């Protein structure tokens, strides 16, 4: 069986989830090759390009899409499997931004302090060697960090007709900013509108857990995904799966509510997959789970709850779709 | 140089940090072999031993200690290096407990729900094979989990003359409940009173991040630590170090404040070790750091901020004391 | 000068802020007589009409509008002065709702508890006597409470093209659910789109601070407002003014961030009106301010920060517009 | 029946709740005349006395006591009725303090900002005219504020043998910093140790709700209380009563947990007094209650939940003890 491959290089980007006509409609199982711009729309290119000067609110965090999935109806799940995420340039950028970040007063954690200084860091990106290079701004210090490309933002049109800025994470996905969204991961979203209307963007060469300063190593990306559909299987919140772990996400404030959502979902998922009652699943997740921060800076904070798939025995999520998508990805990569 | 080794098998346990006379006074560099009881004082031994019946508040979470360190004065740091943590029995126990845990109404997240059911799980522990076995209570499901022994509780007498229940984590350490407190880790605490007065307990055969249901795989432990002193180097909050990572901890509510404390401390530590200004360190930690949950159930929640030591080049924390303690541990284990 | 009076009885309601064409366009200073439906769309009429059965998500919390204001441009403030709020029926209703409220597990404060029971309370409303009567459901207890009619929801189209469910409060206003939104109060909102696009609904015969169970004494209302415009005076967050107090609002989670936003805004407002530096204003607000909860149940929580106008001397907010609107209201009521 | 009156002018103050021998033991019903020092120990007397220079941590917030109550046993409630609270000097003081307050980075809401400036404000206090005068520091602005004297700190020895700094509020009371603790109010505390061990201090000439900048109009006080005992009636958290309202308090973080605790307690209290089931009481409190902030700056935040006593009909809390204590107070004041 041949793989259907389509390409999406948008002429214009979207800045929201919801309220948009699809740029593209694909059948379930289609490979989509696409390009994404960085969260600054490519406008921050030197250390002197302060984002507050070169970017115009609300035109931040452009996303590529939406992509409609044929047959996707409310109540279904769409799967987005990341095949490849490749920085498109030999540089990337990170910044502080006034009143944004985890260790600064913000517009909601409102305080009387002046904003922290706005500063830009340019990273050299070497895809072949798999590294990006950090240059300190106030001293000679430099260090190479491994590339670990990912997308901060991926999701679908929200429920209830809402139109949400692309910088917000929520039950529809969006700007979750977790490093788990790397190649090899499948993301599952609830379908809220016909076609689901998937968009993605905000590529990161790498990102620490929590995205503490508010931005990662931001880069335009050449990305390949496979898009698929699971009828009648809408999760309450975005779920992720890679070869080793099942993952539930929660995006909310305060951070303990993001944690609660993600753990609550993982407990329910575990109970369903292993035929456990909810208290037994609660116990198992409590001893075997991992709980890294995604972001602690966006309009909602994101936590991830992870369970090793080793515990599942023969049980598979969504009837083994992740393995099938991995296979599609392998065939695509072999043929490319 | 020979290693000084002392043994501590307490006749009675403490239930608080602060307000106690030391059971033992040791010189810096001393190896202490000690035994700890589980968080239920060993009273929960069958699935019918509901903790709310067999345990008496506030006699929960017994700790072994305090151990005074000669020469420790306010302003110093004491180091507790975990050499070995070995479950003392062939069983361990975990439970839900009324109004305690992350996915239940509690006395502070007060709600009108009845308590979730109280349930006990007994685990088989096989130290030789390195596993503990989970038995579901409402079905036949069983699964082995790897042993990863750790101490939920370790700390020193608090500042300001406070006496705090051993179930509370804070700037003095205490019940931080992070899986990072395993053998091979060095923990650094600020000294608040002469002698520092170190206590530890709450051994876990393993624990998921967040300790979601409120208890881990709880076990009495045979534990070996090396205790040491770094003059004038008191951290603001407990810090951890293993062979791969520097770690800062924060314990507070809401969870984002625990996150902020830990990241703020790690940024400052990184700045100091690498000679960076604080914004450059903020940037580096943002891209390279990890941020797992410790606990999201105790009176304060605990987050851990981790930085790979690979980034440090030749810089070492506290003049390389972790490596020296590792060496002491190796010699001790070789001679034992 | 005669007062312009228009009437708005919508054929259909809106369920969001943003993304709607105006039903009506008015000149600044116009009196608008309008009708609003209750938050259940009038579908809960007996104690057996459980909202989860008779209401369809997301068709909750209907609002009347939008009303466009001529000349309103981004950067301006629109003022909505409440002249009269009168319950339209001789009954009103309140309910618990599964996973909604301050003392229950919710979808974000996710827990393993079953939902609390869903229950409906019908209140008798006597506008002439100014009371509504509470009937306990599980005993014979009854008591009269004073009518204190208000609107839970009032606001404008959000910034950045967002479309937000009418049940969410935020910088655009929306479902703030504070009892301060009673007759005699002027509310100021930032204009985000041409015409501002004001909507309102969610009438309450009365409401406790915090709206603890999630709903107030919900009623359809006959309401009269005066709509006005202050060029170039957009506040960051909705502000309120009555004869006695200036009020700033903040809507966010956790609740301390809602508090911070409201206090931060009030400090800045006070500094500006009295010519104080920000620390002097911080001090004055700290000693003279009030800080009641609005709601602690909605998607964002709302706090109100109040300053007695007695402290202001001759200073007036927005050039005395509140007094002028009061005058317009008096003339309207005299002529009606 | 004559009133027993004793006097307590401590030679030294305490800085903690718990861990102290009583200075005084009184019979239930005794009037205690006492003096308290301000939260700075009287060391801040001019605008140049910056607290970080003239005060020594942890010797802040001195309290007068403890006072033991004869016959008080764990499980009982002690009542502290405030008869009179009178500023002892003709000046009072308020300050910002580095990393303390609601609109500043703190040690737990840790951020990279430098501390806000530390500033002292001196108030003129005129007890006869019932006013205190605010003087801006950076301009000529002055204004008189009404005196509304209260105690920020009052409580008993904590449970579980804990010793807690007097600056912390909790289930034992402590530094709740609510303006409701004024003359005419009765406060009820759970007894945790024999004698209860009541202490109080931190007098405020007045305080805004939330105590936003971290300190109120701080003053030494001449205070008169009546101390009483209600056998077997320990509340879970401190409760207050005045002539008009029943009040429950909650002290926790995040602020919504303080809110939840206070509302949960008030719902239970209302259910018990009116013979309602918990859902009916939840409903009644939701419509009739008030919810002002106490403090949003201390180690725990405090919220107050208030219910008008008008709703209670003939029901009285604690068998009418508040009315009896008011009577005692009247007789005392008449005879003084």
From TrEMBL, chains A, B, C, D:
Q: Which domain of life is it from?
A: Bacteria
List the Pfam families hit by this protein, alphabetically.
Answer: FmdA_AmdA
Q: Which GO terms describe its molecular function?
A: hydrolase activity, acting on carbon-nitrogen (but not peptide) bonds, in linear amides
Q: What is this protein called?
A: Acetamidase/formamidase
